Amino acid sequence: MNFEGGPGLRELAAALVLVAALASEARAHDVPHHHHDEGGVTELEEERPERSTLHEVILYVPNRVLDLLDVVRARVRIGPGIAVGVRATQVVDLFIGSYNSLYVGLPGPRGRRLPRSPIGVEDNHGVEVSIIDGATGFGFAPEYGPAEVGAGAQVALGGIDLGVEPWEAIDLIAGFFMIDLRDDDL
Ligand SMILES: [Ca+2]
């Protein structure tokens, strides 16, 4: 009697354990969702579709490389003009001059998800002092980072622009722990 009843009970017990496990897993999934929805833990996660763990793993190395490239600007410029610029954040900066150029090198902070090209067009014309920005590039201004520190100059047919963005360095370090402070990961 028990010979047949035993396995039947065991199967029933196993099925109950399975159902209980699935139910508790479903609840475990629900809880963080509610946290995100109600608490608004991070706005970033709500602005974009949630990335899967697989997505993050596959793009982990490319994203760290792009984060690293964001830290340094080292553009060599070829083209006519005369200009000088220095900056230590957007508030403490100075630019005066005019140039049209083709640049080559490390382009500097992306300020977006798409990588910037190591070769491109760059121009800038006018005067910029701190937040009073009278300088304009005709679609190809250098676009510095908000905390970027650096300097550049253009003389006759050549120029150079060097900079470091500490904010991107912090984003790089946070990125190793899967935290995307700049919201620029692919
Ligand atoms: Ca990042």
Protein described:
- By secondary structure, this protein is α+β, with helices and mostly antiparallel strands.
- The chain has 2 domains: about 1-60; about 65-170, no CATH class.
- It contains 5 helices and 5 strands, in the order H-H-H-H-E-E-E-E-E-H.
- It has helices spanning about 1-40, 45, 55-60, 60-70, 165-175; strands spanning about 70-90, 95-105, 120-130, 130-135, 150-165.
- A hairpin with a 2-residue loop joins strand 3 (about 120-130) and strand 4.
- Helix 4 packs antiparallel against helix 5.
- The termini are far apart.
- The model is unreliable at about 1-5 and about 20-45 (pLDDT under 50).
- Bound molecules: calcium ion.
- Calcium ion binds near residues 67, 171, 182 and 184.
What would you say about this model in short?
With 186 residues, this protein is α+β, with helices and mostly antiparallel strands.
Q: Bound compounds, please?
A: calcium ion
The helical percent reads 25-40%
State the order of secondary-structure elements, H for helix, E for strand. HHHHEEEEEH
As laid out across the biggest beta sheet, the strand order is 4-3-2-1-5
For the termini, the CA-CA separation is 63 Å
Alpha plus pi helix count: 5
Percentage of residues in strands: 25-35%
Q: How many beta-strand segments?
A: 5
Task: Label the structural class.
Answer: alpha+beta
State the assembly state of the protein chains.
single chain
Number of domains: 2
Q: Stretches where pLDDT falls below 50 for ≥5 residues?
A: 1-5, 22-45
Radius of gyration: 27 Å
The average pLDDT is 82
Shape: elongated
Main sheet attributes: strand count, strand direction, barrel closure:
5 strands, antiparallel
